[in-house]
Design brief:
Elements lengths: L1 H18 L6 H31 L4 H33 L3 E2 L2 E2 L1 H4 L5 H8 L5 H9 L5 H6 L3 H16 L3 H26 L2 H16 L8 H27 L3 H7 L1 H10 L2 H15 L4 H14 L2 H17 L6 H17 L6 H13 L10 H29 L21
Antiparallel strand pairs: 1-2
Helix pairs in contact: 1-10, 1-13, 2-8, 2-9, 2-10, 2-14, 2-15, 3-11, 3-15, 3-16, 3-17, 3-19, 8-15, 10-13, 11-16, 11-19, 13-14, 13-19, 14-15, 14-19, 15-19, 16-17, 16-18, 16-19, 17-18
Length: about 425
């Protein structure tokens, strides 16, 4: 499948360049991509709910607490490293400075800046309170219909915890029902994935046709900075985590996650990719459901290393383009803002733009600066979503190995040395 998707990506680039923004075939490409993306999104809500409930229903309280602590520690740690990686590259390459002068006056602002500013107006720290409210929706069915994943995850965690405490026949009935439900969802995912090459072709060809390469020229150094930082996190930091903490082969993991990474790049959506990620992590990497069912649904909405890195680079790039020199204190605010917004604001539409707006407001930069990066945001969104999904899958492997699970990526159980007790 991953080779078929790779061929589809190459064909999509060719077809997009051939078609151009006004090509007669563009509506057909758009239809194929939208149809496949809708089919994936159709699976998201029932898959998340059944995966969490099936995983938690068989857990004991101590196991759940331990997995939760491992997951949170991984998310915060790798997120912070990703942000510092972006900060290093943007300070080293200085994409906002051209020939020793700020690049803002030369670049101007994108034509859609006014619309973005209106959309982001009023966004700020108060959005964190909104995120807390999203955790407890008044109507769970309305939350499912509206795609409010944070509320669904919170409800599923509470429901699964309560189901794991049911004794006797009622508890067995709950476990068997959700086990069967989840099995059905995995089979549906496999069925829809057979059409992945066609969907990938439609999605990517439309992006290439509408964006083209001209948009990259005035923002080439910014584009290179983001891609280098994302590549460093994906090809150096995460493999070191896999090798040093989980003690597994990064190459085996990347091979196992091939279809999910290709899907993330094509769809630019961690949530839409979740069914494929879940399938790859369980069926190809060998992570058991009790771990993947907890780590992945939460990670798709909270663990966003690529987005956090991008927010940091954009904020620093805009500061450079406007000729604003941020000292240690200002850069510290940028780092904290990127970390907290990536963890807490993912449930809001246009999450990265909202996060950037929060950071710009915190350091006193004009909100209109977002317009400097709109031209390449769509392509970079594909790149950072791929890193987000890769980070989620690494989290599942790391937590599974720390839990002592057998057979993950073909490796024996990781033996963690414990301190000897008395005697």
């Amino acid at each position: 499948m991953h080779w078929q998707i790779a061929v589809a990506l190459v064909a999509a680039v060719v077809a997009g360049v051939w078609s151009g923004p006004d090509g007669a075939a563009l509506p057909l490409f758009d239809f194929l991509g939208t149809l496949f993306l809708n089919a994936l999104k159709m699976l998201v809500v029932p898959l998340i709910v059944s995966a969490i409930l099936n995983g938690l229903a068989s857990m004991q309280g101590s196991t759940l607490t331990r997995i939760g602590l491992h997951t949170i520690a991984y998310y915060v740690g790798t997120g912070l490293v990703a942000i510092l990686t972006g900060l290093f590259f943007v300070n080293m390459l200085m994409p906002g400075i051209v020939d020793g002068t700020p690049a803002g006056p030369r670049m101007g602002l994108d034509a859609s800046t006014t619309e973005v500013v209106q959309q982001m107006q009023g966004k700020g720290i108060a959005d964190f309170a909104r995120v807390l409210l999203l955790l407890f929706p008044p109507n769970i069915f309305a939350a499912a219909a509206e795609g409010q994943m944070l509320g669904l995850i919170c409800f599923s965690l509470l429901f699964g915890y309560a189901a794991s405490r049911l004794p006797g026949a009622p508890g067995r009935s709950q476990r068997e029902f959700w086990q069967g439900f989840y099995g059905v969802m995995i089979r549906l995912t496999g069925l829809i994935m057979r059409f992945a090459p066609v969907g990938v072709f439609g999605l990517v060809s439309v992006v290439i046709a509408r964006t083209g390469w001209d948009a990259l020229r005035p923002l080439a150094m910014f584009f290179v900075t983001v891609v280098l930082a994302l590549a460093t996190h994906a090809l150096i930091t995460l493999p070191l985590v896999l090798r040093g903490v989980a003690r597994v082969s990064p190459w085996k993991h990347y091979r196992a996650m091939g279809p999910a990474l290709a899907m993330a790049f094509s769809t630019s959506s961690s949530a839409a990719t979740l069914p494929v990620t879940q399938n790859c992590v369980e069926q190809r990497a060998g992570v058991p459901l009790r771990v993947s069912g907890f780590v992945l649904p939460i990670g798709a909405n909270v663990n966003t290393d690529g987005s956090a890195l991008y927010e940091c680079v954009v904020a620093m790039f805009i500061a450079q383009a406007y000729g604003v020199e941020l000292g240690f204190g200002g850069q510290f605010v940028v780092v904290l803002g990127a970390l907290f917004t990536s963890l807490g604001i993912a449930g809001i539409p246009s999450a990265s733009l909202v996060g950037i707006a929060v950071i710009l407001g915190a350091v006193g930069l004009p909100l209109e600066g977002i317009g400097l990066v709109l031209a390449v945001d769509r392509i970079l969104d594909m790149c950072r979503t791929t890193v987000n999904v890769l980070g989620d899958s690494c989290a599942a492997v790391v937590v599974g190995r720390l839990e002592g699970e057998e057979g993950i990526l073909g490796e024996p159980a990781l033996r963690i040395r414990k301190a000897a007790g008395p005697g």
